[in-house]
Specification:
Helix content: 10-25%
Keywords: Signal
Radius of gyration: 27 Å
Distance between the termini: 17 Å
Structural class: mainly beta
Strand content: 25-35%
CATH topology of the largest domain: Purple Acid Phosphatase, chain A, domain 2
Protein name: Metallophosphoesterase family protein
Mean pLDDT: 88
GO molecular function, one term: metal ion binding
Organism: Micromonospora costi
Strand order of the largest sheet: 12-11-10-25-26-27-20
CATH class of the largest domain: Alpha Beta
Number of strands: 40
Oligomer: single chain
Number of helices: 7
CATH superfamily of the largest domain: Metallo-dependent phosphatases
Number of domains: 3
C-alpha cells in the first residue's frame, strides 16, 4: 500500500508552517487597547475615519484601509509597541505609502489603503495612518508564531441596519466581537460571511459596522454579500490581497459594482474568497458567473494548493442551509455548478452566510451525502477523498434571523431540498440545523491533523438583540444556554488513504517536545517538535502506525514488507529522507513474522537510511498461517542548519510474496 502525504511547495517568499506545530501561541494581552495615543496637531485639514485592519497575502502582511477628508499623500506608520514612549512613535518607525482615490456614490471624501510587510512573528505592533503632523489615533495588533496550530473566528451577516435600528444592530455586532475575542484572545483572523450592511452605499451603516475596535486589532477577511453590492463602498472599505476584479467575477453596473475573487495563505490554510453575487453562467457559453468562479478556484489550487495543508473557501450565498434561502433557485443552481468541482479539487471546508441561521452539512461529495451512514450531529467526521463540509453562520449582530424551513418530502431532485432519511425534519444535506434567535459565531481550530469547528452563542434573548427587541420570539434560556455555550461542535479528520503521513516540526532554537498522534484511524504520524542536541543536530523519534499482515494461504509462501521514505519537505525546504532510520519490531507475533534489520540515520553512518527500500518484516517458506502486526521505532536525526518549518514526507510500503 502507498502512504500518501502533501509534499509542500513554496510559492511565496515566506516561512511556511505546519498546522501541527507545538510552539505555544502568545496571547495578545494588553497591547490590544482601543488606542495608544491621540492624533497629533493637524498640519493640514485631513481627518480620518473607517480605519480597518485587513488580512494580507500571508502572515507577514496586513492591509490597512481608511477614509480621509483630503486628497493628500498619506501613509501607514508602524513600530513595535515596545518602542512607543508616551504615545510617541520612534524616529525609525517604518512607513508604507498609501494609494487610493475619490469615494464613489458615498458621502464624499477619499479612500486610502496601504500594505504593511515584513512583520516579525510574536511581536506587538502599533500603527497609525496619515502624514507628518497629522496622524490618526494609534492602534495595536500582535503577530503570533508563523508556524503551528491556530484559531480563526467566522461571523455571519451583521447586516447593520437590517432591523431598522442601526445603533441596536451595531450594539449586537460590537457585543459579539467582544464576546468572541474575549473568549478567544489568541484567535488570529476574523472571517466575514458577507452582508456587512443593509444598504451598500449607506455610510452611516458602514460607520456602525466599523465601530468595534477589534476590527483594528485583528485582521479581517472580508467577504461581499448581496447587500454590499450596488455601490463601491465595500471596495473602498476593504482592500483585499491577490484580488481579481475583472468582469467574470462581478455582476451589475460596472460603475458601481464591488467584489472580485481573492486568495491568501495563512499558516498552512489556503483561503479562497468568492463574490457569489455573480453566479449566472452566460447563455453564449462565455466564461462568467459560477463557471468563472470554478475556473478561478481551480487555477488558484493548481498553483498554490501544494503550499498549504488545508483548503477553505468563503463566499456569501449558502448552498446548503436550513432557512429562507435554502430553496432559492440561485442556490440550487450553485449546488449543481460548484460541488463536484470542490470535491475534485480537494476542498476541505466551505464557509457561508446569507441564510441567517446555523447549519453544518454532512460530508458532501460531488453534490451528494458521501456516507449514507453518517449520523446527524456526529461529533467526529471522517470525510473520504472529495468529502467537503459546508457551514452556514447565523447572524452575528441579531439584526435579522431566518427560521428553519421544513423539507419537502416529495422533492427527489438530487440538488433539491428533500428530507434527511435519518432525520426527516432536516434537509438531506444537513447534519445539524439550529435557530434560537440569539447571536452566535463559529470558531475554527486548525490543528495538525484535524479541524475542530464550534458554533458558540455570543448572546441570549436579552439585549442587545435587535430582532428580538422588536418583537421576534426567542427560544434561548440563559440559564441552560448562556453566552459562550456550544450549539454544535465537530472534529473533522482528513483522509490519508491507505498510507501514513509523517510530520515533524523544526523549532527555531529551543528544544521541544514531540510525539505521535493516532486518532483511532489512519491519521497523521506527528513527530511533534524536534529537539536540538548540543547545538549540532536535531532529533525526533516515534513509532509508525502498525502494519497488520495476515496470511492464510495453503502454499505458505514467503512474504516480506519493505518501505522507503521520500524527502521531508516544507515548501522549497527539504530534509533528506536518508536522515530517517528505524528499528522494526514484531508487535504481535504470527504468520512467521521476523522483524527486519535496524537502519541507522545517515547522520550516524553517512548511509542512505530509509531513502532506499528497507525490510520491515518477513517470513520464510513454510511459515505458519496467521496474523502479525509489524511496527517500527523511527529515528530522525539531521544537522541543525535546517530552517524552521513543518516538514512532511511520504512513507511508501511495499508487500512482496511468491
Amino acid at each position: 500500500m502507498r502512504l500518501s502525504t502533501s509534499a509542500q511547495a513554496r510559492g511565496l517568499a515566506r516561512r511556511r508552517a505546519a498546522v501541527g506545530a507545538t510552539a505555544a501561541l502568545l496571547g495578545l494581552g494588553l497591547a490590544l487597547g482601543s488606542g495608544l495615543g491621540t492624533a497629533a496637531s493637524a498640519a493640514d485639514a485631513s481627518t480620518y475615519n473607517g480605519i480597518i485592519l485587513g488580512v494580507g497575502a500571508n502572515e507577514t502582511q496586513r492591509i490597512v484601509t481608511w477614509y480621509t477628508s483630503a486628497d493628500t499623500a498619506q501613509k501607514v506608520q508602524v513600530a513595535p509597541t515596545s518602542a512607543i514612549v508616551n504615545g510617541e512613535f520612534p524616529a525609525d518607525a517604518i512607513t508604507f505609502d498609501a494609494v487610493g482615490g475619490a469615494n464613489i456614490a458615498t458621502s464624499g471624501g477619499f479612500n486610502r489603503h496601504a500594505t504593511i510587510t515584513n512583520l516579525k512573528e510574536n511581536t506587538a505592533y502599533s500603527y497609525r495612518v496619515g502624514s507628518e503632523g497629522n496622524w490618526s489615533t494609534a492602534y495595536a495588533f500582535k503577530t503570533q508564531d508563523f508556524e503551528g496550530n491556530y484559531d480563526f473566528l467566522f461571523f455571519g451577516d451583521p447586516q447593520i441596519g437590517s432591523s431598522g435600528d442601526t445603533l441596536k444592530d451595531q450594539a449586537g455586532w460590537e457585543e459579539t466581537l467582544k464576546v468572541a475575542t474575549g473568549a478567544n484572545p489568541n484567535a488570529e483572523l476574523l472571517v466575514s460571511g458577507g452582508d456587512h450592511v443593509e444598504t451598500a452605499n449607506n455610510e452611516t451603516m458602514w460607520t456602525s459596522f466599523l465601530a468595534p475596535d477589534q476590527l483594528r486589532q485583528y485582521p479581517l477577511v472580508a467577504t461581499i454579500g448581496n447587500h454590499d453590492v450596488g455601490g463601491k463602498a465595500y471596495e473602498q472599505h476593504h482592500f483585499t490581497p491577490n484580488t481579481d476584479r475583472s468582469a467574470p467575477y462581478y455582476n451589475g453596473d460596472p460603475s458601481t459594482r464591488s467584489g472580485g475573487d481573492y486568495w491568501f495563505i495563512y499558516k498552512d490554510v489556503l483561503f479562497i474568497d468568492l463574490n457569489s453575487n455573480s453566479y449566472a453562467n452566460p447563455s453564449d457559453g462565455s466564461l462568467g458567473g459560477d463557471a468563472a468562479h470554478v475556473a478561478y478556484v481551480t487555477d488558484v489550487i493548481n498553483k498554490h494548493g501544494s503550499e498549504a495543508k488545508w483548503k477553505v473557501l468563503v463566499y456569501h450565498h449558502s448552498i446548503y442551509s436550513p432557512a429562507t434561502h435554502a430553496t432559492d433557485g440561485d442556490n440550487v443552481q450553485r449546488r449543481k455548478d460548484f460541488t463536484t468541482a470542490f470535491s475534485e479539487l480537494g476542498v476541505d471546508l466551505v464557509l457561508q452566510g446569507h441564510d441567517h441561521s446555523y447549519s453544518r452539512s454532512y460530508s458532501i461529495k460531488n453534490g451528494q451525502k458521501e456516507n449514507p451512514a453518517e449520523q446527524p450531529g456526529a461529533a467526529e467526521v471522517f470525510p473520504g477523498p472529495g468529502g467537503v463540509i459546508y457551514v452556514t453562520a447565523n447572524s452575528a449582530s441579531g439584526s435579522k434571523y431566518y427560521d428553519i424551513k421544513k423539507p419537502n418530502p416529495t422533492d427527489t431532485n438530487p440538488h433539491g431540498n428533500g428530507p434527511d432519511p435519518l432525520n426527516p425534519d432536516s434537509y438531506w444535506y444537513n447534519s445539524v440545523q439550529n435557530q434560537e434567535h440569539v447571536r452566535s459565531y463559529v470558531k475554527v481550530q486548525v490543528q495538525a491533523d484535524k479541524l475542530v469547528l464550534e458554533n458558540l452563542r455570543s448572546g441570549t434573548c436579552a439585549a442587545p438583540n435587535a430582532a428580538v427587541e422588536k418583537g421576534l420570539s426567542c427560544t434561548n434560556t440563559p440559564e441552560g444556554q448562556p453566552i459562550g455555550s456550544i450549539v454544535d461542535k465537530v472534529t473533522v479528520h482528513p483522509y490519508h488513504g491507505n498510507g501514513q503521513d509523517i510530520q515533524v516540526n523544526v523549532p527555531t532554537a529551543a528544544p521541544g517536545e514531540f510525539g505521535w498522534t493516532i486518532d483511532g484511524y489512519n491519521g497523521l504520524v506527528d513527530l511533534g517538535t524536534a529537539q536540538e542536541h548540543n547545538g549540532q543536530y536535531f532529533e525526533a523519534t516515534g513509532t509508525i502506525n502498525p502494519i497488520l499482515v495476515s496470511d492464510s494461504r495453503r502454499t505458505l509462501a514467503p512474504w516480506s514488507i519493505s518501505a522507503s521514505v521520500s524527502d521531508f519537505r516544507d515548501g522549497d525546504k527539504t530534509i533528506a529522507g536518508s536522515y530517517l532510520g528505524w528499528t522494526p519490531q514484531v508487535v504481535q507475533a504470527g504468520a512467521g513474522a521476523e522483524a527486519g534489520a535496524a537502519v541507522l540515520s545517515a547522520y550516524d553512518d553517512q548511509g542512505k537510511g530509509l531513502s532506499v527500500a528497507r525490510g520491515l518484516g518477513a517470513a520464510d517458506q513454510g511459515h505458519p498461517k496467521g496474523t502479525a502486526k509489524l511496527g517500527a521505532d523511527l529515528d530522525l536525526k539531521f544537522p541543525n542548519e535546517v530552517d524552521k518549518g513543518s516538514y512532511r514526507a511520504t512513507l511508501t510500503i511495499t508487500a512482496l510474496s511468491s
